[in-house]
Specification:
Blueprint lengths: L2 H14 L5 H8 L11 H19 L5 H10 L6 H10 L32 E10 L6 E9 L5 E7 L4 H15 L4 E4 L8 H9 L3 E4 L9 H13 L9 H17 L11 H9 L33
Parallel strand pairs: 1-4, 4-5
Antiparallel strand pairs: 1-2, 2-3
Helix pairs in contact: 1-2, 4-5
Amino acid sequence: MSPIRRREAFEHIRRSKPEVSIRRACELVGLSRNAVKAPTAKVEKDKPLVAVLTGLAAKHPRLGYRMLHGMVALRGFRAGRDQVYRLCRRHGLRVPRRVRKRRAIGVPENAVHVLRSTSLNHVWTWDFVHDQTMSDGRTFKILTVVDEYTRVPMLVHVARRINAKDVIRLVSGLFKEYGVPKHIRSDNGPEFIATELKKHLATNGVGPLYVEPGSPWQNGLIESFNGRLQDECLKLEAFMDLREAIVVVGDYRRFYKDDRPHSSLDYRTPGAFAAICRGTVDGVVPPVQGPPLRLAALDSAPAPAQAVELV
């Protein structure tokens, strides 16, 4: 806490609790009694300069104390650079840290209600869910990957941290187990727009479909699955450690795939519907159209300039 903030805290204590002695109030805020005496002539003399500095810093937040010193000098103030530095420090006139802007590469034409998956392994979708363990309060991430046509949750991976390299490793395993999709739909998360991941997808012939930033409804199928995961699993469990979370979430993935009927699949389970699509169920003809969703067909998948366009 800066000296000016300590003085303000001292004055607040004295106004709200007049029965508290000056000595005790100084001990509470960490000030000496000499520091809380009546404002000195020097403090009164600095008030006009402080007012100008505050106004300039509010109008030009990217200017440091050296530039502010030059600007107040042009306005007739005789103040040294060290004095301006001291006043800026005392009154919190610091240059805010610059935030790196990230270019958004999603487009609304890649939304799920515009571009519909029409077959098994046509479009996958993925996203992250967050939760925490109760024993230490640490957060963990869950990477969910769903086939949009069959609604099968192919992956629900739990870990403390999941970066772009982890995503590449996990999706490579899915390619070997389920085959390679034509497209993967996602938001503009840093793990999904990483250069290495886009190169890996392009090498395998996968075209990414990035939805518009701040529009989760454009990736509604994965949002729906994540909502069910939270409502039917995460919000009902208090995970003591990461191992328990891995086991419970894995059990829910198997339940969702093989035991939980899905209304958009005519109340079949996603696993049963996927078996029909693969033609592995005797006496059942694989469907030629997608699940009963009133969406436009995905003839070709337009993607951002950075993505690979595939039919």
